[in-house]
Structures are given as structure tokens and as C-alpha cells.
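user: can you give me the structure for this one chain? C-alpha cells are fine.
assistant: on it. calling the predictor now.
[tool input]
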Amino acid sequence: MKPAALVLLLAAALPVLAQPTPGIFRMKPIDPHSQPFVSTLFADNMVLQRGKPDVLWGWSEPGDTIHVTLGDHTATAVAAADHRWQLSIQPPPVGGPYTLQITGDHQSVQLHNILIGDVWLCSGQSNMQLPLRMVKDGEAEVKAADDPQVRFFNVMPHTAYRPVNVVQGNWQPVTPQNATWMSAVAWFFARDLRQHTHVPIGLIIDAVGGTPAESWTGAAALARIHDFDVPLAELARLRDQNAPEYGNYIEHWYDRYDIGQQQHWQSPTLDDASWAPVTIPGGFAQLGVPTTPAVAWFRRQITLPDPLPAGRAAIYLGSIERMDTVYINGQMVGASSWVENPRVYFLRPGVLHPGTNSIVIRVFKTKPDGGFLAKPADLYLKLGDNTSIPLAGTWKGKLSVDARPPQPMPLTYENWPVMPTVLYQGMLKPIAPVSLAGAIWYQGEQNSPRGYAYRRLLPAMIADWRQLFQQGNFPFYIVSLPAFMPRSATPVNGDDWTETRESQAITVATVPNTCLAVTIDTGDADNIHSKDKVPVGDRLARCALRGYYHQKVVDQGPTYTHMKISGNRLRVYFAHTHGGLVAKGGKAEEFSLAGADHTWYWADASIHGNSIVLTSPQVPHPVAARYAWQSNPRATLYNGAGLPAVPFRTDDWTEHTQNARPY
């Protein structure tokens, strides 16, 4: 991924990650098509998997013999015609540290401080990526994260339209100095495992914010479910043209149609004498496209003091429909197509300078009332001393693309990796078939508008990963989406997140060696990046402790099994009620009933052993029940072990997202 694309991705999905961090974002770039003697995944401080042969690989001259020594164990391989060598070696006893010696006919490598333990692949989107410093009590959690027996490898984001050989990253022990930017969910998961097993833990954190599951899935697996035939064909066309590997559609569209980009309208020295005076917020009407799709560029100069105030500066633009790209003094400082997310782009040192500064904003508007959505007071530049410079008012503008029909439009508008297969090729395939204990997966937000189809896609992706890593049906543990968005005071027929949760639960019920970590009692109505990540790690760890480590722990909350109807009463029965059903706060809430008219009403719920009896005066003849069936429910049902119930419905009526298609 070129640097600009990485900034786009991080600014859109998790803006703070756009800031460089020691040891993760300041590493020397690696050519993903290079063929190093030893794969970049294998390095000092790594953890190798116990209890099964460890697969190692690299590249050398065809015919070269490679000898590997690890503890008292040895193995040999011969480099094939494509230069790749690969071998399996039995691991020494758990623990370490060990030295790994790899010797070829022409070179040798020694890797130091190697531990033998359990290696977990931690993948998904930004809630898996969310760093420890950003969670609840983040500063204290970072200071307490001190266990060098846990090691983590952050795979640097990279999109690819064809297979690549290596990823960029390094292995680091968990210390307060290193833990700031590690995945919070992965750390809390590993911390719990360590407390119960005392085995070294390796975490390969392979996650990118805002990405859909299809980006992490191979083309052959996607072709079998036919939901992605259109984008796969587009990807093939771009690959055949050797197009830049952006991983999204909008940047290719800009390359083809945006005159402003082609003519470098972001340049601070551009002669804009012919540009029209416009007013921001607004601007599109004055350019002749008040209600139609269009791409317009807006320019303005501001004068800053000398010296500039010390501290971090940022530009604030409010919400924008549909996508913006912001340049200051010719440097891109941020971009986003997340409409609801107010734009806040923090500026790198050196972007601003005393005197005259150029600000250029490109906006792609797709709706009649699109463009700048904020009030004038919400547009400003904040300097390091918190001085605000208003940005609303007179700018210069120019139309770049009149996007009315028959102008072709991009398949989608996201400016981060959303194309099928591009992260599978760029970030997953290069680390296979490293030996693993299993995988944890926190994703689904980006797929939620197609929540019903996720029940086809997620099992296909899991099967694809298992085939790729060649280690059978290794454990795959899934985070069920937490609460998010405003709570509805009345029952809803369904929504995106609810139906995605159902697809996650169906996947676990039908795919072997999987487990659901229910987090419906966590989350934040106003923030997709909930800070409460300890329960997420804890419940994933419970899945592993029971399923992989075979310990006697409870890993599931109450799960609906069946129902019975008697007159005006509907009784629902549950499994996994360990210690009995419990209504936190004294009342089992968020149950609803419907009759044959499919109209839902809140129900009164009373616990009877391992079942709950539901009644509603508005539903004298109930036929179906639901629990926690909205994005942000008041979910109060638990079992005696303190785990929340899985949201469920007893009906099979058509869902809100059932007919949604990706393209």
C-alpha cells in the first residue's frame, strides 16, 4: 500500500492510528514481493507454536539445502524452482528462550530469544486493532501490561491485487514501553490465558479498520457464493492493467475522472485566478451543481503567526457527505468517506508554517443536500495553543467532475480497503501456513448493512482460512457485536447490527470448533469504538480455555433452544444456564412478542427454572418471541456464571437486510 493509501485508511477508520508510533509505523519499508532468505514473520523475540510441527519458510537459490536447528531438533529443506524453501520442525519443550539457527549454502541467520507456547491469530477491523492506550483506564492498563512471556507481531496494513511474499512487522514482548499501540482485545485475551495456563503466548495481530470480511477472503471461496462476482471482475480488470493497488474503488475512479487530481489542484502555487468565489459551508450551488452528484475543489489561504504556537494542530470540518480529501501546503493531511464521522485531522509537524498557508479540500457530493453538513462555527483550524482560526466564509471553488448520468460512478465510496481479497492477498496469505493454536475474530461492523448475507460469507471465510493454513479445523472464536447506536423505546422489526449478530450466532451453531463471545452488555451508543474491551478479551479467553485448553470454565451465556405456546403464554427454553437464569437489576427486559400480524410489543417476562414465560396484553395469541432484538438493547438476562444471553428470535420472518446485496 502506498503511504497515501495508508493515511486514507487510518484517517477513515481510526484517526489516531495515523500518527507514527515507535517500532510499528516507523520501520524501514519492505518490498512485499521480495524473497528474503527467511520470511519476515520469523524474527527475534517470536513465539513458535507448541505441540505440533512448526512450519518455517524463506527463499534461496533453487537447489540450495537449508538446515534448521531449534533446541535439540533439526530439519532440512531444499529450495524449489521458485526459490521457496519450506520445512516443518518439531518444537522443543514449552518455554525458552531458544536460538533458531537457519543455514543455507550461501548464508545463515540466527534468531534469538525464541519462546515455545501458543500462537493466536487476531484479526478483524478497528475494534480488534484498537490500541491499549485508547481503552477504559488506558493509561493504567498500559503501565500494568508487563509480561515478556507474551509477544505480539503487528502486521502492517498492505493491500494487494496479487499474491505477495512477505509482511512488515516485528515481534515485541509486552512491556509498558511496547504495549501502548498493541491490540487491547488481543492483550486482554492473552492476559487471561496466561493467568490460567502459564504458557507463553504469541499474538499475530492482523487487523485493519473499516474492512469487510470479503477483503480477508480468497477469490475461490468468494466465487462459490456468487455475492461478489461484480467486484471480483473489476479487481481482475485492474490487476490486468497493473493499476495501483489501492484496495478500494474510489481512488481508481479519481485517477480516471478527477481533472483536479490529474492537474494537481492541491498545489499551493496553482494559479486559481479563474476559480469562482464560493461560500463554505456550501459552495456547490455557486458552481452550478446545487443538487446533483459532483466533485469540487475548494481553496483558501490563511496567515499564521511567527513563531507558530508549540503543540499539536488539527483541522476541524464537521461531517461531510460523501467524501473529502484535505491538503495543507500541498500535503495530504486526511481523508474520509465515513459520512457520520466529524472530520478531525491532526497535523504532522512541519505541515504548517508561519505566514501564508494554503488549504485545499476536495469534496465528492452524492446527495442533493450533500457536501459540508456542519454549521459555520464547526469549521476551523486549531493551533497548538488552542487558538482557533475560523474557516467558514469565502473560498475559491472549481468543478472537477459533473457526476450526473451518464457519468460512471465508483462501485462504492469507501477510501480504505474494501475490495474482495485484497487483505487476504496482502496480509494473510504471506503469513501462511505458520503454525497456530487458533484465531480470534472481531469484525462485522462493515458488513452489517448486509447482515443476513454474513451467514454465508463468514463460514466461507473460516473454511478458506482453514484451508490456507493447512492445520485442520483450528479454533475460530468470534466476537458478537456489542451495543451501538441510540436505543429504541419500542420493539423494532430488525436492524443491521441485530441481524449481523444473528449471522454470527448461526455461524457458531453450524461451523465446527467455533465459539461466540457475546458482548451485548458492552458498547457505547455514540462510539463504534467502545472503550470497554476487558469483557471482550475475557469472553474470548473463556472460549479458548474451554475449547482449546479443555479447562472447566463456562464459555457461553444462556442460549435459546426451543419454545412452547399455551394460550396467551409463550415459554422460551435455554441451554447454558449454568447456575440458573439471572435478571440483572431484578427484571428480565427487552423481550417482545408478536401474533400472526407480525406486530411486535414488549412482553412481561418471568423466570421459571431454565425457561422464561412471556405474556403481553397486546398479544393474546402469541406466535413468536424475540430477545435483545435491536442494535442497543437493554439486555439484562444472564446465567449464574455472569455471562449474557445470546440475542435470539423464534421466528423466521423476512429480515431487514435479507435482500441487501453488496453490489
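assistant: here you go. Residues 559-645 form one domain. Residues 462 and 533 are 24 Å apart (CA to CA).
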